[in-house]
Specification:
0% strand, 86% helix
Length: 135
């Protein structure tokens, strides 16, 4: 049970790290792009940054998964990304929902954080079952 608790704690820490990277990337993107679609571009850039950070941390420390070569790593990352499509819709739904309901950046980020928390819990089980399996 202690090992399971440690794993959950580490996974939560990595989710927080990826979330902070996501929000930071969004904030940087918002300041760099002031076009009509700047909000969408910022959320997309944050999603991509968070995805890469979380993949690296999950693969190495949560699932202790070793890919055979770069092609196998690419396939694993693509599968990891596909599993993330469902959870990303949860995240985006909360973030955009909070943005349109409350009309403020802080509330948009709060919605994003809530959506990411729900998404990360779902993603762990999807990744465990479909992505980081014995090859």
């Amino acid at each position: 049970m202690n090992q399971l608790f440690n794993l959950a704690l580490l996974y939560a820490l990595f989710a927080v790290i990826a979330t902070l990277c996501n929000i930071l990337a969004q904030e940087i993107s918002i300041h760099l792009f002031s076009a009509n679609f700047s909000l969408f571009i910022s959320v997309l850039s944050g999603t991509l940054v968070g995805l890469v950070v979380k993949y690296i941390l999950d693969k190495r420390y949560i699932f202790k998964y070793k890919t055979k070569n770069s092609q196998h790593n690419r396939r694993t990352f693509v599968l990891y990304t596909v599993m993330g499509f469902f959870t990303t819709t949860i995240f985006w739904g909360f973030e955009f929902g909070f943005h349109f309901i409350f009309e403020g950046k802080e509330m948009r980020y709060l919605g994003g954080i809530i959506g990411l928390m729900i998404g990360y819990i779902s993603k762990y089980y999807l990744d465990k079952k479909y992505v980081f399996t014995v090859h």
